[in-house]
């Protein structure tokens, strides 16, 4: 047994304790290092996982040109194996282009030497990709002194996206520029308000509308297109649009270019909080609407004045308007039409009133008329024959805005007139062909269009020739040989040309070679044609010749009679003068004293001789037709006084009151005083001779500036109408007297002869039992 001293034991225990402590410390340090290593391994694995899943792959370029990269990056760069030298990358044109390789090399050198980071895009040819390279000096931890680290990102999709964004940006920029130009060139004012509703941008039309110098001036001045303080003005509309978040429109008046205009102000809220606006000038539209409204009212007023029925239906096929003739034609009441019935109901009501054509399939017929609303053609027209013989012309016009306009024209009278016209045409044709006159109608070009049978027969034309409608010159050439004077045939062409070209009616006469005579004339017709007429006057010519010969014989007999009467009158004067002379000698006692009865007998002889002398003078005056008139100034009052003295004894002998009224206006006239005196005497003697004893005869003379008037009236028995009608005719009264006695009264015919010789007038007015009045008017000159 080994004995250990206490001190040795203490030392041994201390050493053992020290060893145990050291072992424990080493164990702790090992455990700690192990934990640390595990954490490093875990962190390394995590970093490896992050690195392998990272979008960027790193490549280290050392100072000596060696490179370190992973196989995925090599594949990304277009290498099948990992390259070793940087030159293998930049010198390989299959991988990078020359320009890109040189740029990458410069950037890497700058990063290695100067620590300048870089960023560039590398289009990789081999991989057909685009990589984003971000390089910087290699950090110390990389343990690549003087080297550079390059991170490669696959930017293929990003580049495409960037390119697409760039293209879109260019397109948007172009669109923005175009939109800006469009806004600036827009004919309507446009503007933009900021969130505080201040004017922030305007276009050229806005500047021009507010009479601004430029857009900047308008924006700076805040010039409003419309008065902003007006209730419901532009600011209120913009505020409403901003608050409601919906576009707003308000109609406001404005003064633009010195003219009052009506604007539609549109405000559109924008996501930015501002409000865009534009103004549409609707002044012309408002005027057009007003004009359309007035036109519609005028159209309806015109429809109300039409004789045709008019009905207008809306797009819903309800009645919009109808005039009074429509109501009358179809017997529709105003109360029922006031409810705006539909088209179908109106047709049914028409049918109930028996105012539609009778059809078998009324529903089908009605459906066909309903198609008028959508008819492709512009209008549809048809004729309706109603029960009772009414004829209607129906026109249906689809309206552009929808609906239908129908017009119902009553053609009953026209149909009746057409039927009557057809009848008249047939009658005219029959009349035309059976007239006694020969007729032919020539057109404006001179061709014979119509003729009757007498025309062809008068000329003796062949049927084939006349049915060829010859021209007037050809017809004249054919007719020349049938005339007594062939050159006279030119009259036909002259008459037709005058009627068709000059539109004048002319006439003439032609003689045929066979002795026939025709009066020809050409009359212009309303349609431009000419009517050529031929009237056979052969019989009239013969009668005229016979009458002319008879008239010549009568005139010769009248001259012989007049000469005989004049000679007899002169011959009678010689024995009358002798009888008057011997009777005066016996009456005055030259042959010795006579018994009282012989004196009375000689006085009666003198009176009869005087009457016979006057009668001979009257007969001579008649045969001389008044003779030559002297031209002198005649005082009517003096002439009338002498005439009254001459007829005074005759009036006294019958106890007739002879009243004389001579007005101061009678004055004087230019004429033959003797004939005027004889006129007054004849009128007075006629009145005295026709008036019974105790009667009254009035001589009244007055005048005017134009002439004088002589009036002789009596209260005798008057005359019958047939006697008064012949009172002034020569010898018409022979053997007839107003009182029934047979006599020869030449006073009135001579009075008329003398008055008419002075260019005056004379008239007689008489009724049985009412007396007679004769009025003679003589001109002053």
From TrEMBL:
EC top class, as a word: transferase
Keywords: Kinase, Phosphoprotein, Transferase, Two-component regulatory system
Highest taxon of source: Bacteria
UniProt domain Histidine kinase: residue ranges: 567-781
Pfam families: HATPase_c, HisKA, PAS_7
Alphabetical list of Gene3D superfamilies matching this protein: 1.10.287.130, Histidine kinase-like ATPase, C-terminal domain, PAS domain
Enzyme Commission number(s): 2.7.13.3
InterPro entries per record: HATPase_C_sf (IPR036890), HATPase_dom (IPR003594), His_kinase_dom (IPR005467), HisK_dim/P_dom (IPR003661), HisK_dim/P_sf (IPR036097), PAS-like_dom_sf (IPR035965), Sensor_HK_Regulatory (IPR050736), Sig_transdc_His_kin-like_C (IPR004358)
Reactions the enzyme catalyzes: ATP + protein L-histidine = ADP + protein N-phospho-L-histidine
Protein name stated in the entry: histidine kinase
Protein species of origin: Sphingomonas plantiphila
């Amino acid at each position: 047994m080994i004995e250990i001293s206490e001190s040795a034991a203490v030392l041994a225990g201390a050493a053992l304790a020290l060893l145990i402590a050291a072992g424990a410390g080493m164990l702790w340090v090992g455990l700690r290092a192990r934990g640390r290593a595990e954490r490093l391994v875990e962190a390394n694995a995590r970093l490896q996982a992050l690195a392998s899943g990272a979008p960027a792959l790193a490549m280290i370029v050392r100072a000596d040109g060696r490179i370190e990269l992973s196989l995925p990056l090599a594949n990304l760069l277009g290498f099948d194996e990992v390259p070793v030298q940087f030159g293998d990358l930049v010198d390989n044109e299959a991988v990078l282009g020359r320009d890109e390789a040189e740029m990458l090399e410069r950037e890497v050198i700058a990063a290695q030497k100067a620590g300048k980071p870089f960023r560039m895009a590398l289009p990789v040819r081999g991989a057909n990709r685009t990589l984003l390279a971000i390089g910087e000096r290699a950090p110390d931890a990389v343990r690549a002194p003087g080297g550079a680290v390059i991170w490669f990102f696959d930017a293929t999709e990003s580049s495409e996206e960037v390119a697409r964004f760039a293209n879109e940006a260019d397109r948007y920029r172009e669109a923005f520029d175009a939109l800006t130009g469009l806004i600036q060139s827009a004919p309507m004012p446009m503007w933009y308000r900021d969130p505080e509703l201040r004017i922030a941008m305007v276009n050229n039309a806005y500047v021009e509308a507010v009479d601004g110098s430029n857009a900047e001036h308008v924006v700076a001045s805040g010039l409003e297109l419309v008065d902003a303080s007006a209730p419901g003005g532009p600011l209120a509309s913009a505020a409403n649009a901003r608050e409601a978040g919906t576009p707003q429109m308000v109609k406001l008046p404005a003064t633009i270019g010195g003219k009052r205009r009506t604007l539609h102000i549109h405000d559109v809220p924008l996501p930015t909080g501002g409000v865009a606006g534009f103004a549409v000038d609707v002044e012309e539209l408002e005027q057009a609407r007003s004009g359309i409204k007035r036109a519609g009212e005028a159209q309806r007023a015109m429809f109300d004045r039409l004789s045709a029925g008019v009905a207008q239906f809306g797009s819903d096929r309800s009645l919009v308007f109808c005039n009074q003739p429509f109501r009358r034609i179809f017997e529709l009441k105003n109360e029922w039409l006031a409810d705006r019935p539909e088209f179908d109901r109106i047709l049914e009501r028409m049918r109930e009133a028996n105012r539609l054509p009778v059809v078998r399939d009324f529903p089908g017929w009605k459906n066909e008329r309903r198609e008028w609303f959508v008819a492709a053609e512009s209008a549809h027209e048809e004729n309706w024959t109603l029960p009772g013989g009414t004829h209607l012309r129906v026109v249906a016009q689809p309206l552009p805005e929808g609906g239908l306009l129908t017009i119902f024209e009553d053609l009953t009278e026209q149909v009746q007139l057409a039927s009557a016209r057809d009848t008249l045409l047939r009658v005219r044709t029959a009349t035309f062909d059976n007239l006694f006159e020969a007729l032919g109608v020539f057109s404006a070009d001179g061709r014979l269009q119509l003729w009757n049978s007498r025309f062809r027969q008068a000329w003796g034309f062949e049927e084939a020739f006349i049915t060829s409608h010859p021209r007037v010159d050809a017809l004249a050439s054919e007719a020349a040989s049938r005339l007594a004077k062939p050159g006279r045939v030119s009259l036909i062409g002259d008459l037709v040309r005058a009627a068709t070209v000059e539109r004048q009616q002319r006439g003439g006469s032609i003689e045929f070679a066979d002795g026939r005579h025709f009066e020809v004339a050409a009359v212009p017709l309303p349609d431009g044609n000419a009517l050529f007429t031929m009237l056979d006057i052969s019989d009239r010519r013969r009668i005229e010749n016979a009458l002319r010969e008879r008239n010549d014989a009568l005139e010769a007999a009248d001259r012989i009679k007049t000469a005989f009467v004049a000679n007899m009158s002169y011959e009678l004067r010689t024995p009358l003068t002798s009888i008057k002379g011997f009777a005066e000698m016996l009456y005055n006692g030259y042959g010795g004293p006579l018994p009282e009865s012989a004196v009375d007998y000689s006085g009666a002889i003198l009176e009869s001789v005087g009457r016979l002398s006057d009668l001979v003078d009257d007969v001579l005056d008649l045969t001389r037709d008044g003779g030559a008139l002297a031209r002198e100034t005649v005082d009517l009052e003096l002439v009338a006084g002498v005439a009254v003295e001459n007829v005074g004894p005759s009036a006294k002998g019958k106890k007739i009151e002879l009243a004389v009224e001579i007005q101061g206006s009678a004055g004087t006239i230019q004429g033959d005083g003797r004939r005027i005196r004889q006129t007054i005497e004849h009128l007075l003697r006629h009145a005295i001779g026709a008036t019974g004893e105790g009667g009254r005869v009035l001589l009244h003379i007055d005048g005017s500036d134009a002439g004088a008037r002589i009036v002789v009236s009596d209260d005798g028995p008057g005359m019958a109408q047939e006697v008064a009608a012949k009172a002034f005719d020569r010898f018409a009264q022979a053997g007839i007297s107003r009182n029934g006695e047979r006599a020869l009264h030449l006073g009135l015919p001579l009075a008329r002869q003398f008055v008419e010789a002075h260019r005056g007038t004379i008239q007689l007015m008489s009724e049985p039992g009412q007396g007679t009045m004769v009025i003679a008017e003589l001109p002053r000159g």
